[in-house]
Each structure stands twice: as C-alpha cells, then as structure tokens.
Amino acid sequence: QQQVKQSPQSLIVQKGGISIINCAYENTAFDYFPWYQQFPGKGPALLIAIRPDVSEKKEGRFTISFNKSAKQFSLHIMDSQPGDSATYFCAASMGGFQKLVFGTGTRLLVSP
Amino acid sequence: KAGVTQTPRYLIKTRGQQVTLSCSPISGHRSVSWYQQTPGQGLQFLFEYFSETQRNKGNFPGRFSGRQFSNSRSEMNVSTLELGDSALYLCASSFPQEGELFFGEGSRLTVL
What is the count of residue pairs from A and B with beta carbons less than 8 Å apart? Predict the structure, then answer.
C-alpha cells in the first residue's frame, strides 16, 4: 500500500514532442505528490509538485495532472528538449514532505 | 548559496566493516533526510532528522543509524556492511514546513 507505481520505465521522444510519465498509488492518505528530475552523477531536484485538492498544475513546459478518484497522477513535458533527457521520479508523502515514497523512475531520452 | 555537501563522494569497504557518511545541509535548513538509491530498489527513505531528533525512520535494519548535530550537520552510519549495502546514499535538506528537498550529489558506497 506504500508503493508508487511508475510507467514507463524508459521513454524516447523526439525534440518538440510531448513526454508523458504516469504514476499510480494505493494509499489514500498521501497528500503531497512531487516529481523529481535526476541527471547522471547528480542528486534528484524538485521539478514540480501538487496537492490532491488540485487537478492540474502547470509550471512552464511541465504540467502535473492529478486524478484523485483513480489515484493516478502524471507528468507532461511539452516541447521536450534534449536537455530534458534525465531520469524522472514521481513520489508521494503523507503528513509531511521529507519521508517520500518514490516511484521506480523513468529514463527519458529526447532525440535531437 | 552553497548546496548540500556530502562526504566522502566515493568509498570502498569490505564486508563486515562499518562506514560513516557526512552531510552538511544548506545554511538555514534544519531538516535533513537520508535516502538509499540502488538500481534494484530505487530511492528508499532511510531517516529524517530535525533539531537533533529523529522524526521518521524507514524500513531498514538497525545496522543503519544516523544523528544530527546542533549545527544541523548530519551523519549516517552503517555497521557490519553487507554486499547489498552497495548504493548511492543521498542526503537532502529542507525547511521542515516546505516541500522542496534539496539533494546532495551523494556518497557512492561499494562493498566488496
């Protein structure tokens, strides 16, 4: 029940295309859903986050869509760029921000 | 401002030894969390410290321990190392009431 399932495991998108990564959770007590981006040799960095009382949040080219009834959330990267090539992790937590349950990660490659 | 600093960046140990990893958080951050990252298990929460007190603990054996000092710097210790402890250990700092975790680049431990 503590798991966050993430798909796909890897994704190849052409430059300018839309990258979509999906996550699903079981624990309805989760109340904070961030997405982290990790480049090789670096620690993860927060990209965007959402609370369950909001169905969508957009920051620049990055959008989180949240479906509370389906217990699913997704990351959309519009106009994907080669510099977006990285591993993306969804995560969830309850009652705080530090104890995150991470998805298994999606390795995104944006081809030029 | 300076980011989260972790030392050492790389280390090699043999089974049965112990290891201590250090983390210096971003100035002003009083919450420090530790995560283990492996290819097989992904990112897993180890523990969180705030004001020298452990506030949360993940599902790891007692061989994994940590502490936080009055200046918010933190250390984690793994005793009686096993091959499966080989991983990237990530430290993250944050303001306790804010969602963004700032990760360091990690300490890569190899157990032979």
Answer: 61
Considering only residues 50 to 109 of chain B, which have any Cβ-Cβ distance to chain A shorter than 8 Å?
A: 55-56, 58, 90, 92, 94, 96, 98-106
The rounded distance, in Å, linking the Cα atoms of B112 and B107 is: 16
- Residue B95: the pLDDT is 85
Q: What integer is the mean pLDDT of B1-26?
A: 95
Comparing alpha-carbon positions, the chain B residue that sits nearest to A90 is B43
Q: Where are the beta strands (DSSP E) in B14-106?
A: 19-24, 31-38, 42-50, 53-57, 64-68, 74-78, 87-94, 102-103
* 3-state SS, residue A83: helix
Amino acid B99: pLDDT: 77
Q: Which residues of chain A make contact with B103, given a CB cutoff of 8 A?
A: 43-45
The beta-carbon neighbor of A43 closest among B45, B96, B103 is B103
Each residue of A46-65: pLDDT tens digit?
999 999 999 999 999 999 99
Q: Tell me which H or E stretch contains A89.
A: strand A86-92
pLDDT of B17 strictly over 90 = yes
- Partners of residue A104 in chain B, C-beta under 8 Å: 42
